[in-house]
Design goal:
Blueprint lengths: L1 E6 L4 H13 L3 E7 L19 E5 L5 H10 L4 E4 L6 H6 L1 H23 L8 E7 L23 H20 L3 E6 L1 E3 L8 H10 L4 E4 L5 E6 H14 L5 E4 L4 E3 H15 L9 E4 L14 H7 L7 H14 L1 H7 L5 H6 L5
Parallel strand pairs: 1-2, 1-4, 2-3, 4-5, 5-6, 6-10, 7-9, 8-12
Antiparallel strand pairs: 9-11
Helix pairs in contact: 1-7, 2-4, 4-5, 6-8
Length: 349
């Protein structure tokens, strides 16, 4: 049986990935290392608590001893690093935290994996760094990010992720570490923490609260359903070429205001008929707000045969229906000491 170390596995994408792998494979076990910060939730994986293939370890990738002890206890075949501070607005306020987690934490994982795996010559080992299209910067009205697009991050968050990518690549070139990097577009789906656009707007609209929209709301993002992202990562782990970067996109470019209006329409028709577009409030645009992201995912399609399977109109319906059916989950994660912070949060990435 192969053993994976998944970091940040109680978060949005990490928990969906763990579900995907354990439901698909019987010969893979997972150790989930998560610090359980505000965006991590053990309930996301409650169904696997008694599964012998799954183990949870509470800890922070910033702590060298925690990471090293896990590698001493387990012979990992693969590391998938989801653990990250990921909200752009928070990075504007706390850039140091983003550097500590996203850069120093990644270094701790790389060093521990290198020490453990170099003894066997890295045979059948994989280290996958989960990154973001935001490391490329911003686009005009046309064009797409490819794997050869120069990195040009424009926020503390994207700068920290770009730095982590460069360290991962350096470990491949310097130490022959079996490193892979994936860069995805905006994810959406179940279990996304409500500081991000879709669950935040959904929660506000359901409660008939104002929906603040940055600037004119015409910022464009490519939207990727989280299960498609998980299948792409799984494909890269098994078939990707060591040392390569793979862009993962959903082929679904939408403006922020389109997303907001779609959510209002869903809530109006399915939950609260009082919800309407009068809830939209345009606010001053975010500092350094990137105008457009769009992914060229032809490399992963042509080389590995992966394409997204979820059309946006189906994915958004599934996502909003999940939040509707799991309103108690949403209430739990938006309560407590961070509630006032969420209420002040603006939208999206």
């Amino acid at each position: 049986m192969k053993k994976y170390l998944v970091t940040g596995g109680c978060g949005f994408i990490g928990s969906n990935f763990i579900k995907y792998v354990l439901n698909k494979y019987s010969d893979i076990s997972i150790v989930n290392l998560d610090a359980l910060t505000y965006a991590g939730n053990l309930e996301n994986l409650a169904e696997f608590e008694k599964d012998p293939r799954y183990a949870f370890a509470k800890g922070d990738i910033r702590d060298k001893n925690v990471v090293q002890n896990l590698f001493n206890q387990h012979d990992f075949d693969c590391v998938i690093n989801f653990a990250a501070e990921s909200h752009v607005d928070r990075s504007l306020l706390e850039p140091d935290l983003f550097c500590q987690t996203n850069v120093n934490g990644t270094l701790n994982l790389l060093n521990a994996a290198k020490e453990a795996w170099s003894k066997c010559g890295y045979v059948n080992k994989r280290y996958l760094q989960v990154s973001t299209d935001e490391v490329y910067g911003t686009l005009g009205k046309t064009g797409y990010f490819s794997e050869t697009t120069p990195l040009s991050p424009r926020s503390p968050y994207s700068s920290s992720k770009a730095s982590a990518d460069m360290f991962a690549r350096a470990y491949f070139h310097t130490y022959q570490m079996p490193v892979l990097i994936t860069r995805c577009s905006n994810n959406y789906g179940p279990y996304q923490f409500p500081e991000k656009l879709i669950p935040l707007v959904f929660n506000n609209v359901c409660n008939l609260k104002n929906v603040p929209v940055y600037g004119d709301g015409l910022q464009i993002r490519d939207w990727l359903y989280v299960t498609d992202h998980c299948s792409a990562i799984d494909t890269v782990i098994h078939n990707g070429k060591i040392g390569e970067v793979y862009n993962i996109g959903g082929n679904n470019e939408k403006t922020n205001i389109e997303i907001v209006k779609a959510i209002i329409n869903y809530v109006h028709n399915n939950i609260n008929p009082k919800a309407d577009e009068n809830l939209i409030t345009h606010v001053t645009d975010r500092l350094g707000h990137d105008r457009r992201y769009a992914i060229d995912a032809s490399k992963i399609k042509n080389e590995l045969g992966w394409t997204p399977q979820t059309e946006f109109h189906k994915g958004i319906e599934q996502t909003l229906s999940w939040y509707k059916d799991n309103s108690e989950w949403l209430k739990k994660v938006t309560s407590g000491e961070y509630k006032n912070y969420y209420d002040k949060m603006y939208l999206g990435r």
